[in-house]
Amino acid sequence: MELFILFSSLITLAAFFSYLNVKFFRLPSGISLMLMGVVAALGVIIAGYFSAGFTEMVREKILLIDFSEFLLGILLSFLLFAGSLHVSITDLRESSKSIISFATVGTLISTAAVGFALFYILPLFGQEAPLIYCLLFGALISPTDPIAVMGILKKANLSKKIETNIVGESLFNDGIGVVIFATLLKIAVAGTDSFGPKDITLLFLQEAAGGILAGIVIGYIGYRLMKSIDHFQTEILISLAMVMGGYSLCHYLHVSGPLAMVVAGIMTGNRGRRLAMSDMTRDYLEKFWEVTDEVLNAVLFMLIGLEVVIVAFDLDYFFIGMIMVFVIILARFFSLYFPSLVFRFNKSLGNKSLLIMTWGGLRGGISIALSLSLPPSPFKNIIVSITFVIVIFSIIVQGVTVEKVIKKLRD
């Protein structure tokens, strides 16, 4: 019952703040909910100074939700599937070279650059962490969050090519980033002696290639089932089964669930929507997943803001986080520029497009969830705290200004 009350409170707060935003502020929904969640969290902390135990009581309630498990194990499957339904496979094919390069080579470059930078910055503040943990931080913070990106760039009026690159890259580099994180975590736990280059390669291939293959199978089975009937209620249930059953199967098979959901969503949103659905089914399915996406996003961003209550912040962590914000932005640009130069599509995109992709590459809940999923260690708290600083800056500052940056670069 306590969990039900907690979720009821989250939904009520999200509805109230969404109303205020639509009525008065008119910010992108993700930004407004994150901002108001942070304000609510600060209100709880301040109230704690006047009412002993109040903040602790709220912290205990929030801790009833394992945020990492909630996002990575439940929400992520729904949000990635819903987001990828609207991605055109034709547009993806046209930009496939750049999207694949950015999602793989770019994520690896950013992971290494951010990890090494943190390793050398920490001692300046009297802190330290092994290189492998710094690289883990690089892996969890490098992928752009498709949930935050798609929610905030909807009103940015980007060109089709740039929008496809940002959304396509964020959908795929999310899966790749989780695979890199899982690989590095295994090295950190098992050590390089028992987990060598061959094991790393096999794990990476199993997670990434296995996830893509699972997505194709899930998408194809869903397509065939939907094509054989014309009953929108059942077809919506089939899409739910693809997400929930498919994601659970990926977890059991130890392959990348996020990549599987992206592939299955793209197949359903293109071939399935075009060839397997009547107009009525198409309309109901689109509206169902649009509402599902909005509700889950509202809960997610509100929860991210309120999670501030459970983080043990230190002033040094804040300053390290702010320095890392600029490091990550620079690493982001280099991780885009280098592949575009090497694979020779820099002329078709142009430096202005890369700058837009750099500033529009937002970090979100996935980074927080991965940081919270780290096993207990002396280095976990600093990584979690720095991650919160970066994510809040990314969504609020970059999210608010991305339209202005795009307009300025276009002029």
TrEMBL record:
<feature type="domain" description="Cation/H+ exchanger transmembrane">
    <location>
        <begin position="13"/>
        <end position="407"/>
    </location>
</feature>
<comment type="similarity">
    <text>Belongs to the monovalent cation:proton antiporter 1 (CPA1) transporter (TC 2.A.36) family.</text>
</comment>
<feature type="transmembrane region" description="Helical">
    <location>
        <begin position="171"/>
        <end position="191"/>
    </location>
</feature>
<keyword id="KW-0472">Membrane</keyword>
<feature type="transmembrane region" description="Helical">
    <location>
        <begin position="129"/>
        <end position="150"/>
    </location>
</feature>
<feature type="transmembrane region" description="Helical">
    <location>
        <begin position="99"/>
        <end position="123"/>
    </location>
</feature>
<feature type="transmembrane region" description="Helical">
    <location>
        <begin position="294"/>
        <end position="313"/>
    </location>
</feature>
<keyword id="KW-0812">Transmembrane</keyword>
<keyword id="KW-0406">Ion transport</keyword>
<keyword id="KW-0813">Transport</keyword>
<feature type="transmembrane region" description="Helical">
    <location>
        <begin position="382"/>
        <end position="402"/>
    </location>
</feature>
<feature type="transmembrane region" description="Helical">
    <location>
        <begin position="6"/>
        <end position="24"/>
    </location>
</feature>
<keyword id="KW-1003">Cell membrane</keyword>
<dbReference type="Pfam" id="PF00999">
    <property type="entry name" value="Na_H_Exchanger"/>
</dbReference>
<feature type="transmembrane region" description="Helical">
    <location>
        <begin position="255"/>
        <end position="273"/>
    </location>
</feature>
<protein>
    <submittedName>
        <fullName>Sodium/proton antiporter, CPA1 family</fullName>
    </submittedName>
</protein>
<feature type="transmembrane region" description="Helical">
    <location>
        <begin position="203"/>
        <end position="223"/>
    </location>
</feature>
<feature type="transmembrane region" description="Helical">
    <location>
        <begin position="319"/>
        <end position="342"/>
    </location>
</feature>
<feature type="transmembrane region" description="Helical">
    <location>
        <begin position="354"/>
        <end position="376"/>
    </location>
</feature>
<keyword id="KW-0050">Antiport</keyword>
<feature type="transmembrane region" description="Helical">
    <location>
        <begin position="70"/>
        <end position="87"/>
    </location>
</feature>
<dbReference type="InterPro" id="IPR018422">
    <property type="entry name" value="Cation/H_exchanger_CPA1"/>
</dbReference>
<keyword id="KW-0915">Sodium</keyword>
<dbReference type="InterPro" id="IPR006153">
    <property type="entry name" value="Cation/H_exchanger_TM"/>
</dbReference>
<keyword id="KW-1133">Transmembrane helix</keyword>
<feature type="transmembrane region" description="Helical">
    <location>
        <begin position="31"/>
        <end position="50"/>
    </location>
</feature>
<keyword id="KW-0739">Sodium transport</keyword>
